[in-house]
Specification:
heterotetramer, B: globular, C: 311 residues, mainly alpha, two-stranded antiparallel sheet, 12 helices, binds adenosine-5'-triphosphate, binds magnesium ion
Chain lengths: 305, 508, 311, 348
Amino acid sequence: KNEEPKKEGEAKKYKIALVLPGPINDQGWNATAYAGLQLVKKDLGIDMEYIENVQQADFEATLRDYGEKGYDLVFAHGVQFTDAVNKVAPQYPKTFFMVINSDQGKAPNIGGIGIREWEGGYVAGTIAGLITKTKKLGAIGSFPFPVIKGTLDAFENAAKAVDPSIKVMKTYVNSWEDIQKGKETALAMAENGADVLFCSANQVGLGSIEAAKMKGVKAIGYIAPQNEVAPGTVVASVLYKTPNLFKWVVEQFIAGKLEPKGYSQGWAEGVLEMDWTDEVPQEVKDKVNAVIEDLKAGKIAPPKP
Amino acid sequence: MQPILKMINITKTFPGVVANRNVNLEVYHGEIHALLGENGAGKSTLMNVLYGLYQADSGEIYFEGKRVNFESAKDAIRAGIGMIHQHFMLIPVHTVLDNIIMGLPGDRGIFYDRALHRERVLEIAHRYGLEIDPDAYVQDLSVGAQQRVEIVKALYRKAKLLIMDEPTAVLTPQEVKELFSTLKKLSQEGMSIILITHKLNEVLEVADRVTVLRDGQVIKTLNTKDADEKLLAQLMVGREVNFVPAKSPCQPGPVVLEIKDLVVKNQRGITALNGLSLTVRGGEILGIAGVDGNGQTELAEAIAGLIKPVAGTILLNGEPIVGKKPRVITEKGLGHIPEDRHKRGLVLDFTLSENIILQSYYCEPWCGKFGFLNLNSIKSMAQELLEKYKVKAPHSEVAARTLSGGNQQKVVVAREISRRPKLLLAVQPTRGVDVGAIEYIHEQIIKERERGAAVLLISTELSEILALSDRIAVIYKGQIMGEMTNDNPDINEIGLMMAGIRKKKEAS
Amino acid sequence: MEQIFTLGFFITLLAATIRLSVPILLAALGGMFSERSGVINIGLEGMMLIGALFGVIGSYVTGSPWIGILFAIGGGILLALIHAYMTVSLGVDHVVTGIAVNILSVGLTSFIFRAMFGITTTPVKVNAFKPLAIPGLKDLPLIGPILFQQNILVYLAFLLVPLASLILYRTSWGLAIRTVGEHPKAADTVGINVVKIRYLCVLLSGIFAGVAGAFLSLGQFNMFVDNMVSGRGFIAVAAVIFGKWKPSGILAASLIFGLADALQIRLQAVGTGIPYQVFLMLPYIVTVIAMSGLVGKTTAPAALGKSYEKN
Amino acid sequence: MKKDLLLINLVVPILAILAALVLGAILLLFINVNPLEAYSVLLFGNLTSLYGISEILVKAVPIIMTGLAFTFAYRTGLFNIGAEGQMYVGAIAAVVVGLKLGHLSPFLAIPLSLLAALIAGGIWGGIPGLLKAVFGSSEIIITIMLNYVAVYLLSYLVDKPLREKSGFYPQTDMIGENAFLPVLIPNTRLHLGFLIALLFVVLVYIILWRTKLGFELRAVGLNLHAAEYAGIDVRTKMFLALALSGALAGVAGFTEVGGIHHRLLDNFSKGVGFDGIAVALLGQATPFGVVLASLLFGLLQVGANSMQRSVGVPANIVYIIQGLIILFLLGGTILARRYQKKKAKGVA
Ligand SMILES: Nc1ncnc2c1ncn2[C@@H]1O[C@H](COP(=O)(O)OP(=O)(O)OP(=O)(O)O)[C@@H](O)[C@H]1O
Ligand SMILES: Nc1ncnc2c1ncn2[C@@H]1O[C@H](COP(=O)(O)OP(=O)(O)OP(=O)(O)O)[C@@H](O)[C@H]1O
Ligand SMILES: [Mg+2]
Ligand SMILES: [Mg+2]
């Protein structure tokens, strides 16, 4: 069993750490986690520690170090930490390890929590399907990791649900940071007829938005609020409220309610949110909102792996 | 008359070596002043100091009456000093014109007016009879032509004082004559010339005065009309010199090396050997005379298997060796003192013992069954050899780089001779080593002959050929121009053959 | 599949080739000067990265991308000075120095960026270069709107090729550079200041690489992101050798890299069923093949990588 | 003379590291971090516990191997910039063997996967070697290019044919437990790979300085023309040197997957190939020097993580300090030599 909850007044004594696989200014995955850390500090008054840019070879050592120092809760920010956590956690029963994006937990002290990213991709695909004129869409991913692939597949499924004749070009760039490659890939898609672009690859996405701007086609922002990156080009952003997710976990933990199982959150839990611009007509918004309601109600199936 | 140059009390040291010690030198307008001295006497160093390439530790230099302090060659050039270095300072991949104008400021801003330069270069070349092609690439030129480029390069910079560091080492006697007449013409026009050489006869022939250096110090400055070869040699070396080593009469044995109609192309595809034939017998020394660049390098490399001939045969003890790998040829009994000890003969950063086993490292007892080196026996053998061949070195485990040129050469000679070769191929065996070492190396070569080995001696130093050979052949443009025995040979005829002029056919 | 190889496809392919080759071309031209003078510069990657950042900082502070370029040049010079001091003045191995410069630059850019802009989830945007249409040419049918509406740095990069040729082969500087790279001692004897020339050439490579970096951050984008150069500096090093240390060869090499990259992106986007990694490998495999069969042996400047100690 | 060696080998490195740290300290002060605190963690934090020390060694293992790889080629006068790629293909081969034969006895499974890594790395290094020998192509370019090819090859393999059975993450399944490199000290990650790396250090030393092959390789590296004159087949030796160099780098892949990850992942151990170049040159291209320099790198990299964790120093400062240490070490050595020369001259 977990530790008993401490008294309210002692809440600030919790030692919580965040282990990040990349730099905190990657404008994406790691940056949102860092924002979560700040939110926890602001709303809960808890100082979380973090370590960024941890290489695969150092996962185990890093987690072990926190266990050794008696941390209460350690966030491992990415499913790639699963192996390392499984190895380390049994030796440090007093520490609860939370793997982000994992859907599995293991008693007594491993939990997983993920955003159902495919739900984000699905909504983006719905929007794209509704506003495309050429019936061609472009979707760019970083690596064919399950989450990314699922997101791209959901994007395609959603667009086809709007209109089965829609074609989706999917491409992986093998990078989180090669912004020029993102741009060129998006340009190639636009030149090949795509008129709405979507990208799930951190900084690379900025490249695809730039390309959309150049080609006068539309883009859908993803994860961060990107409507302002290119007004008129980015018609809407699917926001990740990842910070909320961290806050939720920490709250659950303090309340002693955090269980060693897999949690997943999406539209229903308010971790995903829409950020519209005026570029999108109300009728489209209505249709998309209906899809979001379906997702919340669990009426739409995730893409097959 | 006021001297154009006065160097006063120049001292220049390198770590561990005093290259120049309180040297005084005066050169007058229109004078040809020879600088004479053994290897390592400090001649090049003194000139490099004058030319601004080295900074003297102490001393003063006055040029045209003014105290000067050249911080770089640029200053010296600007003041009117030109220098032609012992090793040519030309860029092989540049054209002649580029080699001449490099370092000059642009004509319009940073741009060169090449047409104008070309014209001026040709004009100077014609005026002094220095035939050059401005558009040729230096890598395609003969050594003599390269030297003409060097001279034009200096003249083009309006030099008033021209330094020439051993300019004749690479020329035919005829080319030397031409060069000297050019120099005389220049001096008559008021140019001052400092001429560095080891060759006493040249000093007497062309110079007005001569300064002799020994161990970094000036021994004497004298007028050439007051000097003769014997005196100069004595001043230079500090003792009487034995010009000709003693050797017993020749007793030739069976043919060891036979070369027939050998054709070799060099790296750039130019024919370097053009149907060359020769034979060498056991117990004799065949000397190949000739001006550098007439195929000597290619001949040696072809025998050693380092380049593959296009046609012809080479028989070593009756066995064909064309197309065989260097190792195979070495094992068949070739000992090879290569032309350039730094390029081929030594791995400068290897220890002396590693250099000594360079040709035999893979053999028993140096190398055991499983490819492991037997360091102890290598070391003791090396130590022994160094002592036997009087190599001046602290011990066998120092890098070859730390030895003087002469001692480096002794290491090469020791290695090749100690393998008791059937054919000793000695190419420029004493190039750039001092008199003591020369005497020693010559002795060793003669010893090999006496042991019964065949010796093929390739040298551009005619005096060396004359001193050692039993027979002399002259190489010119990749062919043997003629052959003669070495009893009272006609030096003039050899000189003509070196220049490509054939008088009589076949001697033997 | 068959409908993709249309005229339009080739024109857009060409345009993408140009954009992708520009940063490589710029950096490689700089690298060429450095190597022609005898100094190996494997630190181009780091110099580009710092150029990308400093360009953004310059534009951020002053609002002018042109001043951004000046900053980028300054950043490139900063790292180049380190490289020059180590290699030319001290004679340290050129390759390690270059690697150290790269490591240093990764840390330095990230540090400076965070210190200046903090940690954000959306990028800091600055004024960047706008496409510049060339009057007349831009109205050419088909190709006009695509080829002649690039930003000014693109035109500049291509103009630098003949300019570099001119400098290298027609001027006193160029002759001095080539002489120093072939035979520093000979250069010394004709009064060429070897140290000065090498410093200048290394600095020149810093300047070019800085501009190449700014081309990414200010020409292609209006922002800096960590590690945005993503290996293009190493490709530039390869382009110098591939291009046989000649401006025209480097132009060709850069275009080949650009083309291979543009092509793989397009083929991937079309969706062929071939694993996408195969396309990503394409530019590199092309180089290996070209280097072995077609280009074959290249002769580097004779004194490349060798330090020169005067006395 | 002894004193001079001491200056170059001990005093200079210490001063160089100090100088780099002082510059880094300025940056630390700038972001309100106490440099003394940060540095005590960076340099000594991990030396106080067995676990910390073992982590340093663990970190050093692949760097030692890539450092040896660079050294080996460098001694033959060649620049192998491709250790990164060779390491990846070595890892691929080791994992394939580990997957297929991981159920065999460890005495078979481990040597076989080591062998596979050696061969695969050898092939990857042999390609530039062959091209160099046949066409004279620049090994620098070819090895750089093959790094990228290896990265994408690895990415493809874990994406498609070797993807784990669940098909979830782009990684392979765990290799058989018998192919795991045994842990040397309980409760640490220090694995057999460390001893294997040390074995290769000795092996490389012996090959280079005690065997005929090493004699030949070094002769080629120091003077190609003299080597040719000595009857050494220069081209074959160049090929061999790059192939063996690649094989050594392949071992780095083997130790990483066998000792740490136990499976193949995209982009594992990024940058180790380049670390290898730096340690080789810092270690003056001697096997023993490589070990020392790798330990320094291991200490810095593990210390950097600790420093981040306990003092909150961002990772980028570590890069800066690492870059500065390399520059100061190399530059400092030369300045010290010059100083000695000047002194010697003063005496003469
Ligand atoms: N760069 C140097 N470093 C150290 N010692 C040097 C250097 N150059 C010359 N020396 C030494 O200084 C002394 C004088 O050399 P220098 O080259 O001036 O002789 P030289 O009279 O020109 O001989 P040679 O006839 O062989 O050309 C020699 O002992 C030589 O080894
Ligand atoms: N004692 C020394 N210490 C350091 N370097 C030296 C020393 N003696 C000679 N050298 C360097 O080694 C080189 C070879 O020396 P040396 O002149 O004896 O050989 P060499 O074959 O006659 O050369 P060259 O053909 O230039 O006359 C010279 O260029 C000189 O710079
Ligand atoms: Mg001399
Ligand atoms: Mg000499």
